[in-house]
Every structure is written in C-alpha cells, then in structure tokens.
Write a structure and sequence with these properties.
The protein is α/β, with parallel strands linked by helices and 327 residues long. It has helices at residues 62-75, 93-102, 104-108, 126-136, 170-180, 213-225; strands at residues 15-17, 30-32, 42-46, 79-82, 113-115, 146-150, 154-158, 188-192, 232-237, 243-248, 251-256, 283-290, 293-301, 311-320. Strand 12 (283-290) and strand 13 form a beta hairpin.
Length: 327
C-alpha cells in the first residue's frame, strides 16, 4: 500500500515531532512555526469522505469527494482537518490507496493533514485496522490521539472517539494534560473527533448516531475547562453525514460530515443554529484567523446532482478571542 505522506513528512514546512517525549508530558506532538505559516492561517474542517472504489457510488459519491478535494486544494489552507471515516473500510488497503490517489493534489500543494480515527477506520480487527491507519499516516505510528500546534495561537487536538473519553481513561488524562499545558499564547483550541459530543438528537431516524455517554463526558469536561482557560474552544466532529452548528457553555460545536459519504437527513432541533432545509449538504468548513477573530464559513456544493457544480456559502460564524489578563 502506498503511504499517504502528509503530516510530519510535508516538504517545505518546518513540522517538528515530539514523538520522543513521554506521553504523560504536556506539549504538542507536532508543531508548525509561525514563520512557516502562510497568512492568514486557514483551516479546512470536514469529515466522512469514505474513500473507496470510485465504481461504487452507493456508500460514497466519488463525484462529490473529488469535487470537494479539488476545491479545498484551491483554498491553500494551512492544514486540512479530517473528522474521521476517511476510508470506507479500515481493513481495506485499497480504500486507503484511493484516498492516496484522490487527494494527490493536496500532496502536490504540500498541505498538512490532521486526521482522526472514526468507526469506519476500525471496522474489522483492531490490530489490522490500526496497522493500515499507521501505514497511511506513518508519522502517527503508535498514536491514536495527538496534538498539533499551528503557530503560536492555534492548537489542534485530534481525539479517538472509538476509545474511551470517560473520566479516568488514558485518553481523558492525556487530554487534561494537553489542555492544562497549552501555552498562554494559544487563543483558539480546535478539537477534532468523529462521534459528536453535541448534535441534533434524533427520535425517528438514525437514532444510533445520537451523542453517546462517551462524548458527553468530553462535553462536560470542556464546559468546565472553558471557564478557566484563555483559549476559545471549537469542536469539529462528523459521523452524521450532514452539517450542524451548536453552541454550549461558550463552545462552538460543529457536525461536519458532508465529505462524500451517503447523506443523512437530520431532524433539526431548535438549538441547531443552522436551520436551512436544503439537502444534501456535501460541504466543507473554512476557518480563517483574522486578528482576534476566527471566522468560519460552511461552503456547500450548490448543485449536488451536477458534477461541475460550484460552491455557495451557507453558514457563517465568528469566535472572538478572549482578552488577555495582565500577568
């Protein structure tokens, strides 16, 4: 299987790895210095691509996948954040090879990719699935969760929601050390994961995709930390093949699962800040750091039935950095 040589191996970026640092220590796993970031700092967030044989369009649309990949490359982002379910099947080396080939333009542009494990990455035997994951992302070898500092002001934490996030778990303790150990210069903490901690609770369809106690534990932890840390928090998840935006405890929660997988209809609750009824929502979210504000825009494929479709801005939000307290 060809390796997807993204994070840590991107030529031209000063990406440094702290893999020699014991896992019980704070600090980022990877770092890109301010001097290596093309301004303005830009993140693309989206998930549920399910790369697979393009001849099979029942579970994932190759047309939409490829349209999104090409458009995202044109954005020339600082990094692309994938919310999980990158391949359709974690046991399939062929699916990872399709990921490699369909995203070649990202590699040509030398764009770092920050990917999280989803349930489809883990479909099958855990040992074999993880080996395929680490072969695809060699810089993540032996890691299921990790962190990336993008310059001095943005910190990205990639979590594995197929593992425990409950209080006392290895991942929860690691996360607490990461958050408590963040530099005071960090204004925005972006958490990427697959299963959403906050989403529209479904009562008729896809009820098995509702947030689970595992993610509720994270939600409750973040609600408490948001009161005391300087950084504003943005959580980007997938699993639900649609788009949602929620705010709780001063935290912005996105469901960005429109990467190409078979779309899901959502019963929108009043708490969902996105109420547009258009469907399906193949999309990506672009976040740009401008001064003290992180500006987010959801770009939707305007005509999903059209392979040559363009994109339209369908939702927007802003997250304003907290004022710094005097030392």
């Amino acid at each position: 299987m060809m390796k997807c040589v993204f994070f840590g191996l991107v030529i031209g970026l000063a990406v440094t790895s702290a893999q020699g640092v014991p896992s019980d220590k704070p600090g980022p796993t990877f770092t890109i210095k301010d001097s290596e970031i093309r301004l303005p700092l830009t993140l693309i967030l989206y998930g549920d691509q399910r790369f697979m044989d393009p001849k099979d369009n029942a579970q994932s649309s190759p047309t939409m996948r490829q349209l999104l990949v090409k458009q995202i490359a044109k954005e020339k982002p600082t990094a692309i954040v994938l919310n999980g379910d990158v391949p359709n099947g974690g046991l399939s080396k062929d699916d990872y090879a399709v990921f490699q080939s369909e995203t070649q333009v990202w590699q040509d542009e030398r764009i770092p990719v920050i990917a999280s494990l989803g349930n489809h990455e883990m479909n099958g035997g855990e040992k074999e699935c993880l080996e395929n994951w680490w072969e695809a992302f060699p810089s993540l070898r032996n890691r299921r969760w990790y962190s990336t500092q993008l310059g001095s002001r943005v910190y990205v934490i990639s979590l594995d929601s197929t593992s425990s996030l409950l209080a006392g778990s290895d991942q929860a303790k690691w996360l607490a050390r990461q958050v408590d150990g963040m530099s005071r210069t960090v204004d925005f903490l972006v958490i990427t994961m697959h299963h959403p901690p906050v989403a529209d609770v479904q009562t008729h369809i896809l009820v098995n995709h509702n947030p689970r106690p595992n993610e509720f534990a994270l939600r409750d932890y973040l609600a408490e930390k948001a009161k005391t840390i300087h950084a504003r928090i943005l959580v980007s998840a997938g699993h639900i093949h649609n788009y949602e935006r929620h705010e709780q405890a001063g935290i912005t929660y996105l469901v960005s699962g429109g990467g190409g997988a078979f779309p899901y209809i959502v019963e929108r609750t009043p708490d969902d800040l996105y109420q547009d009824k258009e469907f399906p929502n193949y999309h990506y979210v672009k976040c740009v750091l401008e001064g003290q504000v992180l500006k987010g825009v959801m770009y939707r494929v305007s005509q999903p039935e059209n392979a040559e479709s363009g994109f339209e801005a369908k939702d927007s939000f802003t997250i304003v950095a907290k004022e710094r307290k005097p030392k």
